[in-house]
Structure formats: structure tokens, C-alpha cells
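ingest -> validate -> predict -> emit
validate: passed (alphabet ok, no gaps, 439 aa)
predict: started
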Amino acid sequence: MEAVPARARAYVTCAALGAVCCLPPLPGLRTTWWAVALLATLYASCEHVARRRFDGTFYPVLLAGAFLLPPSAAALVALPGALLSHVEQRPRTLRRIWRAAELVLAVWSAGQVHQALGGRDSVVGCDFPYALLPCAAAVLAFCGVLALLDGGILALAERVPARQAWRGLLSRSLAPIGVHGLAGLMMAVLWRSPFGPVAALLVLLPMCVSWWAFAQYHRERAAHQATIRALVQAVDIKDGYTRGHSERVGQASVMIARELGLDDERVEVLRFAGILHDVGKLGVPTRLLRKDGPLTPEERRIIQLHPEYGHEMVRGISFLGEARAAILHHHERIDGSGYPYGLAGSQIPQSARVVAVADAFDAMTSTRSYSRARPVAAAVRELRRCAGRQFDTEAVDALDRALARQGWHPAVTADDPAAGPSAVRRPHGAAQSVGRGTP
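emit:
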């Protein structure tokens, strides 16, 4: 996202100004500045490791600062780590400013809540279990501010529908940040105890173990992602039609899924389903995929086996979930005339109905050797004409609404004639009423 919308830049600017307002009056602030410097350095170090090695973030030190220091001083702890953090996507400066602003606001809010409930006194006096109450309230405030700000940036920068931008942000963050809050509370209590700051740093050891476990999971997931990319690249080489097509179908599937209000986990699964829907073509003879002219009935039956081939190929990838059903059934039709099993209506899994619409939409809006691309509006009209018979009406309506709001800006443009000699000779995935049809 290099081209950040003006409204998103204005939103980041407002958040940054709000963060600046949380910092004064620092000159007259009575606090232990060496503690602020130590916590800031510790947070910056932990954040650097977390982002570089684990692609995550590290909150215990920030929350410990909120429990130990005045709110304005605690907010300062976040600044060095956020402003110096590793950022891969551009614009990097704007992203760092945004990260610093939201963390300053979140830590300041958590510190205010913790202080208002007498949390600092309970930490100093090791007053358990009462100390847990202000700690829990502070963590809730911290999560609430992050969720509020993140939802706003999703709506403005990523153009996620407003009614979906904030959905699940708070509930998903409560458990992991709650664990970080407990670690931060233990750090604060030990810091104020006779054992001092050195003992407080020992609390980070179990957190490092948990980060190591998370890293193992992250590496396993990255291996799955690499497997998916390899499968798609293999299909691209075998059948030039799919070059770029799979990624675009995944993109359109995500647009439909979000418009239908599906949760983030299912949206991700549908993205995988769209990307992998044609993976079964690896089991189809290349001569059939590249054949000029019409197919014989026997050749058509062979190609129609590709959904079952694809299902078998991905059956062992457990995290794909319902994506496997989408791969198997994306050529079923609402009226029961599709394949491989002739399912009809609600018998067809929702994931397959979504991918079927995305597949046909991209086929119609892509330029091929056999036909020119249709305008988006014409493709939507064709989908609507076939809705209720070939395509799911709800999925078609969702795509129409998403396109009206976001437009169609496919991230992959591998249809360019310069893409290579493997020019496509026959369409796959479009509605039979479009072009020469699908076997």
C-alpha cells in the first residue's frame, strides 16, 4: 500500500497529534528517568527481535511501564521501539509514525485507568488479589484503544467496509494481550519489591519461551504458504491460462467473503480456496489443456476430473479447512447441472459458491487469446443473468456491492501477451454463456 489515501494520512496525523498531547508536561513530570530509559531500551530491543524473528509484537514491557510510571512517562517507553521498528512495506516513515502514535495513546490510556483505580499503590504494596483489578482494567483500555484505532485505519486505508472494520478486533486481542498484561504486572511487582529491577527482567524468560513456540508455529505456517505457492506455480507452468488467474480469483473471493460478513479466518480460507481452485489441473494431460479446437466428449470428461484431483492433492493440508470443499465443488451449479457430483442449491458448500462466482468473473474480465476482456459492468450483468441457475445469487450480489464500493484492481496482471509463449487456447472457469464455455 504505497499510495495511502489522503483521508488515511489525515487520520494518522490526527492520531499523532493526539499522541503528542499525551506527552506534556514532561519538564515538570516527577518520575525516575533512568527507569523510563531502561524500559524504553528494553522494549525497543524486544520489539526488534519480535518483529525480525517472529513477525509479532511485544507488549509486557509497555504494560509494565503503564503499571509503574505516570501515564505521560509510560507513553514515552513506546516511542523509541515504535519509531525504530523494522517496517517492510512503504511508506515506512508514515507506518512508523502511525505505530508510535497508536502505542503512545494505548499506553497512556492504560496508565490513566490503572492510576485512577489506585493500581500504583497496589503494585507498591503487593496488594493481591486487588492489584489484578486495575491491571485488568488497564489491559482492557489498552486493547480497546488499539482496536479502535486499527479499525479506523482498516476502514480508511484498506477500504474495509465500516461495519466490518472493527469486527472481532477487540475480542481477538484480549486473550494474548491479557497474557502480556499479567507478565507486565509481574514485572512491576518485582520491580517494586526488595529484589529490584534485575529480578523483574527474569519475568521475560517465560515470555521468550512462548515466543519460541510461536515462532515454531509461524515457521510451519510459512512452510504451508510456500507449498501453496509452489503448487500454483506448477499449474501456471502447465496451463498458461492460470498464470495470474488463480491469484485474482483469490482476491475476488476475499471481496465476496468480506461483503458476506464472514470472519477473518474464513476470509483467509477462501483466499486459499480461490488461489488453489485449479490445482487439480496438474493431474490432467497437458495436451488437453493446450489443445486447439473443441474437445471430444471423452476429453471433456477427463478435464472434468480436475476438481477431484485437486481435492486429493490438498486433502492432507489441514489448515485449509473448507477450502478443500471449494476446490472439489467450484464447478457445481445451483440448478444441479454442474460437476463432479451434480449438487444443487444449498447442497453446494458456501465456499464453493463464492469461488465459482469469483472464477467466472475473472474469466470474463481477462483478455485471452480467444476473446477480449469484458468490462466489469458487463461481467456483473452476465453473472446476474445466470444467478439462481448457475451461480449463487447471494454471492453475486455481494460481489456487485464490493465492486461498486472498491472497484476492481487486480494485483496480478500476468495476462499480458508478453507473459510468454504458453498462450491460452481455451477458457476455463467462465460461465458457459461466456465465450466458448467450460468443459
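Residues 204-238 form the longest helix (35 residues).
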